[in-house]
Amino acid sequence: MDKTQTYTLVIWEEVPENIQLWLIPDKAINDEDRKVLDEAQITYINSDENIEATKLLSDAFASEKDNCQDPGSIWACRWKQYFYGDRAKAAPIKDVKVSHVYLTGWFM
Number of folded domains in the chain? Predict the structure, then answer.
């Protein structure tokens, strides 16, 4: 991990089963992406009403396009390479500059 750049940390909850951490380089996030992240802050699929942004993130974090709600979207698997870890195997995040932190996800 490049210690000279800043990152956005997304805490993706799959309530009550799992928590995933996504560490995305800020240089990989454009203004429209940031708007989606801002809109998804503390919204949960299957719980909140305005969840379009959260659905886009769900697609962005999918490991395969078949798991996306819109497999043809630019969001499909877009950030899958930035998966940091989950409840079972996430090492402490050390020596990383985090510029933004978001909390969002699913109620299963």
Answer: 1
Q: What are phi and psi of 45, to 5 degrees?
A: -65, 140
Domain presence at residue 87? yes
pTM score above 0.85: yes
Please indicate, yes or no, if residue 1 is contained in any of the structural domains: no
- Angstrom distance (rounded) from CA 75 to CA 67: 12
**In tens digits, what is the pLDDT along the chain, a chain of 108 residues?**
777 899 999 999 999 999 999 999 999 999 999 999 999 999 999 988 889 999 999 999 999 999 999 999 999 999 999 999 998 888 888 889 999 999 999 998
Residue 33 in any domain: the answer is yes
71: containing domain: 6-107
Nearest CA among 35, 34, 76 for reference residue 55: 76
